[in-house]
Amino acid sequence: METQNNFKTLTCEQVYNIWISEPELIRILDLRPRLEFEQRHIPGAHHVTPENLFTELQSLNGRLAILVTGDKSEEALLSNFKDHNEFIFMQDCQRWFETNKPLTGTAVAHQNPSPQDWKEPMATDIIFYQLFESESSTYTYLIADKTSKEAALIDPVLTTVDRDLKLVQELGLRLMYVLDTHVHADHITGAGEIRKRTQAKTGVSLDAGVNCVDIPLEDGQELTLGNKKIKVLATPGHTNTCLSFYFEGMVFTGDTLLIRGTGRTDFQQGSSERLYESVHNKLFTLPDDTQVYPGHDYRGQTHSTIELEKRHNPRLGGGKTKDDFNKIMAELKLDNPKKIHEAVPANLACGTQPGASSLHAQIVDGISEISCEELLKHLGKVRIIDVRRPEEFNNELGHVPTSELITLGPELTNFLEKGDRSEEIVFTCRSGGRSGQATAESIRLGYKKTINLAGGMIRWNELKQVIERN
Ligand SMILES: [Fe+2]
After folding, report:
1. Residue 283 belongs to a domain with what CATH number?
2. Is the pTM of this model over 0.90?
3. How far is the CA of 250 from the centre of ligand 1 (A)?
4. Could you say which of 108, 142, 162 is where a domain stops?
């Protein structure tokens, strides 16, 4: 590894080789002016300013930061960071732009709008796979932009995460998003597990009550894959927070619109009226040749089109009125899905199974205690309560992602008195003192699985773990 201006460097080709083969090991931070970044940048790169670089370096989670600079002036600004070894400069960044390596950005989008590409996107510049999980007859979709290699998974199932991620890796894709059309009742989502194993962000409806989601989604929102967009369509009815996703002439309809059918509307705040309106006002207004890819199929069918469903869907196509549809749905007498009591709570926690955290705690002075390293392995699977004062929760130490603020004193006591004594909770504070008191109090009140986080936020920050600040 060469040094230049006392900084470690890798060549453009070395960075490209890591980027293409082991993207999860690196985080590319682009220090060029924002306008230049927006025009064209390496897919997956993040724009940073020298001022916020320090914060970025605290969120690396063991990855190596590769810094992209435009000229020497940005490097000069970084002299304060000379002693840090979490980052490496990419030497001669210009070569990336000159040697036809993958790029994304507004200027890239404008460079190649050949009319042919618009007519036949599937044949030319997207990657698409329909995957099937047989126990719940669920379809999972992998979509990607071929140029930038940015990808998204829609409705992955926990039990088939290994298969899905292997395909992503084999295709050399960079997974950006894991999206759920809704809080499923028949299977556990793979979203949380995939987030743990990649850099992908999870997305589900803003109103679904999934606190651990990275991107709460709203109607009309757009997510970028290279120079393409996934458009979010709110299509409530099967549940009150169902979404569909539109991408390049395809619509992923979850359980809103199935092939010659619809999802049920009799639980999870479902409504046959709303489902009818969602299909007629949102999905049936898409172009007739839009390909329809549903969340399930139980009869071996793979896809349909908006036109076919408008004409032949026996529940709400072929001129069926809302009253017809309401009557049909009211007369369906369906059993609850076998997994509903397991799946819904797990999916509200991004697909982690209740009680599955299996934290390795030590007993210190009569109370259970875990290290920050141990908690990190179980982030997202266990409830974390920060017992500091509100002003401390967002101070320079920040707070552990997914943690909730319930201040030690009357507020915490009140919470514990009403709570479930069998719940597993990790308490944290600044250094471990107040959270130790909180753990002791919870034990006094009959809690069986409460644990103190040793060293608190001071230790968490020393280890350079990810923090959040509101
Ligand atoms: Fe569903």
Report:
1. 3.60.15.10
2. no
3. 20
4. 108
